[in-house]
């Protein structure tokens, strides 16, 4: 269910962007890919479940299902509450919010593939989107593949997962045509759920600055496809043995001519870390070659935060103030050179001559 309808005429800058996609005769692993089958004809924007089973909502926010059977309702095709658009194929499509004014509501169409992905094989993902008339385009729409559905316990952006594929060729602001989004990824094995949407949220995925009708983004989506390709070549990648350090450490794989994807989502050739942990790097050459390795970085000798008590203490002449710390957490050195975990402080005395 939407939090409101913005009734403005779109003046968004339009740009039809179509990426290349290789011809494939493999079977589409996406069930009900063009949303033709439904359990019942929709009659309103969704408030929970979706009629186009087995598609579902990836979190507690609610995507919408549209069909030509819903004549005169908010979810009719071609004229509905979000604008005017015919289906890319057939008689149905879905719609989902990618950006909302309060940043606490983002929608994710999601379904289980007909079979799990096989480790070491490349897969081509494609779908069509069209920006709804009363909204503004964004530049990043992705697809996340997982063994189990990602955590959908809240209604905001899924910013803790990293999509294997993401469109990043400019703002998708066409409200007239359907825009093809396509790419590929290499399966790590067992992925059987696909979740589509904006995995950034907030300022990390702003709307098209050429658009002034709204600060929100809403897209129609149709014809989702995932097809299996060929096995990939495995690249040599060696990040080395575990590293122990006390300074920020740069992990340098020493390879070039590849794409980098670190486990924290960064895509730079190297990764500088300052906390202990195991860091994973995946390198790829398109969807034809892949290499994966990890390295453990252990930080030792990093100064611990010590609680010395109140910042100011008032004592009388002749008295003393004792600071007593745990001797088991490390070595100490006070400003006078002493190294005991217990330190006694006497008040300063003023001598008048």
Structural description of this entry:
This protein has 353 residues and is mainly beta. The chain has 3 domains: 56-230, Jelly Rolls (Sandwich); 233-299, Immunoglobulin-like; 310-353, no CATH class. 0% of the residues lie in helices and 32% in strands. The protein contains no helices and 21 strands. The protein has strands at residues 56-57, 64-67, 79-80, 83-84, 92-99, 109-112, 121-131, 141-146, 165-167, 179-186, 193-197, 217-231, 233-234, 243-245, 249-251, 259-262, 271-273, 277-285, 289-299, 321-324, 342-345. The strands form 6 sheets. Strands 1-6-11-8-9 form a 5-stranded antiparallel beta sheet, with no helix packed on it. The protein starts with 55 loop residues before the first strand and ends in an 8-residue tail after the last strand. The model is unreliable at 1-24 and 348-353 (pLDDT under 50).
What's the gyration radius in Å? 28 Å
Structural class: mainly beta
**What is the name of the CATH topology of the largest domain?**
Jelly Rolls
Low-confidence stretches: 1-24, 348-353
Largest sheet: 5 strands, antiparallel
Amino- and carboxy-terminal Cα gap: 83 Å
Q: What's the overall average pLDDT, rounded?
A: 84
- Overall CATH class of the largest domain: Mainly Beta
What's the total number of strands?
A: 21
Beta-strand portion reads: 25-35%
What is the share of helical residues? Answer: under 10%
3D shape: elongated
Number of helices: 0
- Give the ordered list of helices and strands: EEEEEEEEEEEEEEEEEEEEE
Number of domains: 3
Strand order of the largest sheet: 1-6-11-8-9
Proper CATH architecture of the largest domain: Sandwich
